[in-house]
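user: can you give me the structure for this one chain? tokens are fine.
assistant: on it. calling the predictor now.
[tool input]
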Amino acid sequence: MSEAVDNKGEKEGVGEFIRKTREELDKTSFPSSDTVKNVTIIVIINVIFFAIYLFLVDQAWVYLLEGLTWLINKIVGI
């Protein structure tokens, strides 16, 4: 359980696994706090926009279906 298997199917020790993991972490780049704040604001604005948009589309469908139901009831005589 304390050994990892590499691409070739060979087992490697925990120390080698940790070393490779640190090497991969050194290759990564993390966004700055300003970038995170800006992207968060953009996401929140998009969520609010699409929530309002979907609410309005839903209300339009309700209005149309209620109107269609009323019309069909008038035609049928219910």
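assistant: here you go. Helices lie at 14-27, 33-76. The two ends are 73 Å apart (CA to CA).
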